[in-house]
Amino acid sequence: xxxxxxxxxxxxxxxxxxxxxxxxxxxxxxxxxxxxxxxxxxxxxxxxxxxxxxxxxxxxxxxxxxxxxxxxxxxxxxxxxxxxxxxxxxxxxxxxxxxxxxxxxxxxxxxxxxxxxxxxxxxxxxxxxxxxxxxxxxxxxxxxxxxxxxxxxxxxxxxxxxxxxxxxxxxxxxxxxxxxxxxxxxxxxxxxxxxxxxxxxxxxxxxxxxxxxxxxxxxxxxxxxxxxxxxxxxxxxxxxxxxxxxxxxxxxxxxxxxxxxxxxxxxxxxxxxxxxxxxxxxxxxxxxxxxxxxxxxxxxxxxxxxxxxxxxxxxxxxxxxxxxxxxxxxxxxxxxxxxxxxxxxxxxxxxxxxxxxx
Length: 358
Ligand SMILES: Nc1nc2c(ncn2[C@@H]2O[C@H](COP(=O)(O)OP(=O)(O)O)[C@@H](O)[C@H]2O)c(=O)[nH]1
Ligand SMILES: [Mg+2]
Fold this sequence. Notes:
By secondary structure, this protein is α/β, with parallel strands linked by helices. The protein has three domains: about 1-45 and about 60-110 and about 200-270, Rossmann fold (3-Layer(aba) Sandwich); about 120-200, Obg-related GTPase Ych/YyaF, coiled-coil domain (DNA polymerase, domain 1, Orthogonal Bundle), CATH 1.10.150; about 295-355, Beta-grasp domain (Ubiquitin-like (UB roll), Roll), CATH 3.10.20.30. It is built from 14 helices and twelve strands. The chain has helices at about 15-20, 45-55, 85-90, 115-145, 155-170, 185-190, 215-225, 235-240, 245-255, 260-270, 295-305, 305-310, 320-325, 330-335; strands at about 1-5, 40-45, 60, 65-70, 95-105, 200-205, 225-230, 275-280, 285-290, 310-320, 340, 350-355. The protein has a six-stranded mixed beta sheet, with helices on both faces. The chain has a three-stranded mixed beta sheet with strand order 3-9-8, with helices on both faces. It has a three-stranded antiparallel beta sheet with strand order 11-10-12. Helix 1 (about 15-20) runs parallel beside helix 8 (about 235-240). Bound molecules: guanosine-5'-diphosphate and magnesium ion. Guanosine-5'-diphosphate binds near residues 12, 14, 72 and 233.
């Protein structure tokens, strides 16, 4: 899963990126105009993995990872660049979810924060970027239909024209595409455009240390449309550069229970609708993430394409039952162990073992 940070210049994207990933990319106050996005991978810690490891004593523990991209690394620093250049939008299309960063601290040019207005601005940019793509393609499709040269393709082109027409209308009304419903066929037709307003999006309110925790009204307004979280980015970045021991002491002092990283991950799972399943064995105990509603076959595919191709069945029991029973033998004798087919809907906490042959 890849999350892209997007926002106005100097909203603190790079600061947050550093805080969350433990990196030390340059923040724009000291920008060198370096080209290219900042990219890092963060481990998704899950305490259930450790509990499982206590039972299976594997050689290694493996956690899923989330990639975080600080998108504006592309064009920040040279001052002239448009905050939402074509290059940046192109890159933004490749992520699974957007995290919109809003400035809620007084910046060096002393303009007071206006997080909700900034959010509107960003939404407009995203709508516009999608509109340009949809209109351009619609024009082309209509032209081919008019020329009548589409032949066997006419049916598909008509379907594409219809769905693009619907999309253009929605975007013109200021509606993001994630609010629209598409059937499977339409989904297939528009997937290649990677529309930005169709991606799951969450909001990070980046507040100064003094006001953090006191911005409920702003957060409430944001939460009408998005999953949202408040970070004190600057402070989090400073914390991330300390050793673990000092961080824990600091967090206790400040009454912070969960690190920014953990809160972002939880939010991303929520926004994307992700759940975790596990595989266990002598070699490794491992957590995997998939979308809620995914089937045993999709879980197999997440592990390896061969497992999906040669899928026979999945042995399945639940983490909670294992913890109560104490061992998988006990789970079996309790009748909580089952064999499921490819259409089985995986639950958060399922422990799976795929039977397959190729
Ligand atoms: N007071 C305060 N300043 C911040 C915070 N986050 C970032 N800044 C400052 O805002 C400026 C821009 O930050 P940067 O991360 O480069 O923003 P970007 O342009 O969105 O990547 C820098 O001078 C940061 O030190 C914050 O949470 N509080
Ligand atoms: Mg930056």
